[in-house]
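Researcher: Please translate sequence to structure tokens.
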Amino acid sequence: MDFSSASLDGDVDFSGSIFDADLVSFAGAQFSGTTDFTGSAFIGATVDFSDACFLGGGVDFTDCSFRGGEVTFAGAHFKGGTVDLRAPGW
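Model: Translation complete:
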């Protein structure tokens, strides 16, 4: 799944989504509203948020799982909102 360099204006809701692919890329994407990945699962994937920009809204990865792959947020920018990375039981 390739969201590289996408401009996602407004609120984005990926909550509860299942990403089951070899590569899930949000590299260089811009998120301008609240971004919700609550309860999402990335299975067996390389997940790339490198150089992604989260501007102006909160970012929520609460209860999100990354299984069997690699995840990178290298160079990602978070500005103007809260970031929640809590895992189950935290």
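Researcher: Any highlights?
Model: The chain has a mean pLDDT of 90.
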